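Chain particulars:
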Amino acid sequence: MKIKSNLTIEQFKNFDFAESHIVYLKIFDDTTLNTEFEKISFAALRRHIFNGIPLHILISHFTSVSIEKKEKNQSFKPYEHNYIGDKGGCTSMLYLLPSNADRIIQDLIKALDGSPKNRLFKYGCTIKFKLKDGKTITLKTKT
């Protein structure tokens, strides 16, 4: 994962994302996929990134996702997982734990860290964040 201004993953983890905004998201591959969003929420960012992870990997690597609603924890919310790599258009109903921006950033780092071959998220992306202090940081991955 590359972050503009040559920041390392550890430096990226140290930013405070409370009161920050996502100003741009682009998801792409080497062929036809090229999806762009402007001014989306952290929850929407996480859903889009999770849609780039195969279902079996998503369930086994993220505690914020469940295949069934947890009776003890009613805060899990329904989420339609539409894996963008599935040309058949299969949709699976899952449950997502609502989270704050910092928790979603932890999920994001987990999904995007590593080489394209080894990371959980199977596509390239560009994400621009505007922090509370007005700084803009850009996170980029390749396919």
Q: What stands out?
A: The mean pLDDT is 84.
